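[scheduler] slot 2 assigned
[scheduler] job type: sequence-to-structure, two independent chains
[scheduler] chain ordering preserved from manifest
[runner] begin chain α
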Amino acid sequence: MEEGSSNPFRKLLSIGEVAERSGLAVSALHFYEAKGLISSIRSRGNQRRFGRDVLRRLGIIKVAQRVGIPLAEIQAAFDTLPQGRTPTATDWQRLSALWKDDLDARIHRLVALRDRLTDCIGCGCLSVESCPLRNPYDRLARDGPGPRLLETDD
């Protein structure tokens, strides 16, 4: 059918079109669909067709992932949006506000880790000069393996 005809799929995008428009690989789109982050319908020929709202959702996924938001949190946020409607600027303000406190806490923790990184490896171990002062008698060993001091807020 022609683009302007009564074709019910004329406003829908193929998976190739979505991949091209979003800059994502088809395999990424399949992955996001399997995780329930995006959805498609099937044409009579059993081909995936996506509503144009999927492009905005994919943009949100890319931005959220870039700042470290886990897919499970993105999914939970998407669950608050109506299906089949393009997320609006108001939706984005609400979603980003949900993630702001968590991002601020992660930034704080990363800055603290960065500032302590050169002083001590944090596991009671390779820094002979400073670890005996911070970890006398290897008392941190009872807390488990790995960099114990670097993972605290002290």
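[runner] end chain α
[runner] begin chain β
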Amino acid sequence: MRDHQPTHLDPRAPLVLDTKDLPRTPGAMRTLQRVVPAPASLGLELIGVTEGDPVSLDVRMESVSEGVLVSARARAPLHGECGRCLREIDETLDVEFQQLYAYEDSTTDTTTDDEVGRMHGDLIDLEPELRDAVVLALPLHPRCREDCPGLCPECGVPLDELPPDHSHAPQIDPRWAALSQFKQS
């Protein structure tokens, strides 16, 4: 479910688009490219885009009879750690998203508010759709590489840094140590 939409948008906010130069004639189109700072909390626990990192946007706004169809591509640096070996992950995230924003006076009763965004005057807030696209594109269990073997459960060293014959002497739980005397007799 969508977060509660603000009643007033700041046209100077980096992820707010102004459509006043886009005619309301179906088929009219405008494109723009912009680099904006990443908003806070753009990711998951182990991986995400750091707040303030540059997010490159390629946006196409197209007038349709019900509103404005926005198609966008976002690229941003991705930082996190491997869920198996805890090594740092630094990659580039590239996502695409599309959203229809209905005019304020439009009556789009064939869809729910979750399926169609609403314009605020001539303004469109891209942040919710950007957040959804980024978070849905992220892996829940990121890996530094597909075949990452993880860590040794005993010493915590990455398994691919250890020799093939790496092993540890079995550790006996001190609570059961007295029972080992029965085994020896």
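[runner] end chain β
[qc] chain β: The chain has a mean pLDDT of 87.
[scheduler] slot 2 released
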